[in-house]
Amino acid sequence: MSTAEKLSITLPTEMVRFIRDKVDSGDYSSNSEVIREALRSWMTVDQPLKALDAAITRGIADAEAGRTQDIDSVREELQKRFEA
């Protein structure tokens, strides 16, 4: 069961207008619902990006430490995997 906490925020007029337009169009029943949906979407994108950033950081560290493979070896390995 999730809990809710009330926040008071200040937004630029353009954002407020966007939120109210979404509610007025009937797409959402409240301002809070619009903001919750936007945050859910943001969170869905944010997590994979964090994982990608971590993988890139590990890759750079490996390259800097000399843990690399030449492209021909990688191609051969991939070709074997896809032929199996």
Explain how this protein is built.
The protein is mainly alpha-helical and 84 residues long. The protein has one domain (13-83). The chain is built from 3 helices and no strands. The termini are far apart. The model has no long low-confidence stretch (mean pLDDT 94).
Key features of this structure:
single chain; 84 residues; mainly alpha; 3 helices; 0% strand; elongated
Lay out the secondary structure.
Elements: H1 13-24, H2 31-64, H3 71-83
How would you summarize this macromolecular structure in one to three sentences?
With 84 residues, this protein is mainly α. It is built from three helices and no strands. It has one domain (13-83).
Q: What is the CA-CA span between the terminal residues?
A: 46 Å
Q: List the domain count as a whole number.
A: 1
Total helices: the number is: 3
Q: Indicate the low-confidence ranges by residue numbers.
A: none
General shape: elongated
Secondary-structure class:
mainly alpha
- How would you sum up the major sheet? none
Radius of gyration using CA atoms only? 23 Å
Query: What is the H-and-E element order?
Result: HHH
Number of strand segments? 0
Helix content: over 70%
Strand content: under 5%
Mean of pLDDT = 94
